[in-house]
Amino acid sequence: MALALLKTMRPRQWLKNGFLFAPLIFDRQLGHPQALIHTVLGFLLFCMLSSTVYIINDLVDIKADRQHPQKRLRPLASGKLPAGVARLAIVILLIVVFPLAYLLSGDFTLLAGLYLIINVAYSIWLKHVPILDVLVLAVLYVVRVGAGVELINVTSFSPWLYGFTTFLALFLGVGKRRAELNLLPNGANAQRPVLEGYSLPLLDQLITIVSGMTLITYSMYTFSAEKLPGNHTMMLTIPFVIYGIFRYLYLVQVKHSGEAPEDVLLTDHPLQVTILLWGLTILIIFYFLG
User: Both 186 and 272 in a single domain?
Assistant: First the structure.
């Protein structure tokens, strides 16, 4: 039962909470021990909070998940995890998360609460509304970044990074919907009713828009944000973002993957290498050349 609960908590999804580290890295405070400790603690609390959300989501979606070719194997849908145990886990996690969050920062606690409220609304209603569903997912990524800002004393976190986060999240969300629609072309509505509001041509158009805006907002950051190296060396990181976007498009449209973005990140080696080189280049520019 413990393993079933852990699986329901979705540890693989904790990668998304890595966005809390964006303010620490891009504000060039990675070498500040207190800021690093606060961000790590905030990351762990958001992992617990996001696991709470996944348990709630699976409780809400038990019937729909039982009709899905893969999700029917989830612990709650398959009966391996009793619903009563899942509800008790939700209560315990919330009792732990919010008092500890308040010790870090009051504003961080408010954003954690906002994250929880939006997620619950998404699980119950918003995920069934076309277009709004992916917009809400993007908002949740921005909330993570905002939570990271509240954990440290930010000196210059560029608004362009909020824009980049928004459009990158939209890109991943729309790609996820396309992969789901491609996986379930027949009877898709029974497993995920929101897919009734989408078509492959529409999703391809949306992907074109948000992928272009992702590249534009990141490029604008590299040469217009404050406190970047004066020689514009941050522009050297743009090719990594371009390749990452192109590679993900290839995986979604040619390889028909992308239903779970975190699985793509954990399994696709070219994408992993690209992200690693992008991150190393940023660290070198900020902490050795800047």
Answer: yes
Q: Distance between alpha carbon 78 and the CA centroid of its chain, in Å?
A: 26
The dihedral over CA atoms of 9, 10, 12, 13, expressed in degrees to the nearest 10, equals -90
CATH of residue 22's domain is 1.10.357.140
How buried is 201 (Cβ within 10 angstroms: 0-12 exposed, 13-18 middle, 19+ buried)? exposed
Instruction: Count other C-beta atoms under 10 Å from residue 32's C-beta.
Output: 15
Asked if residue 56 lies in contact with residue 76, where contact means CB atoms within 8 angstroms, the answer is no
Helix 106-124 vs helix 132-150: angle between axes, to the nearest 10 degrees?
A: 170
Last residue of a domain, one of 129, 155, 181: 155
Please indicate, yes or no, whether residues 147 and 99 belong to a single structural domain of this protein.
Answer: yes
The pTM is what?
Answer: 0.91
Q: Residue 104: count other Cβ atoms within 10 Å of its Cβ.
A: 19
| Residue 66 lies in domain | 1-155
SS3 annotation, 142-196 = HHHHHHHHHCCCCCCCCHHHHHHHHHHHHHHHHHHHHHHHHHCCCCHHHHCHHHH
Question: For the segment 168-204, what is each residue's pLDDT rounded down to a tens digit?
Answer: 999 999 999 998 888 765 555 555 678 888 999 999 9
How far is Cα 273 from Cα 7, in angstroms, rounded to an integer?
27
Cα–Cα distance list, 49 to 20, 26, 201 (Å): 13, 24, 35
| Overall domain count for the chain | 2
- Do both 139 and 7 map to the same domain? yes
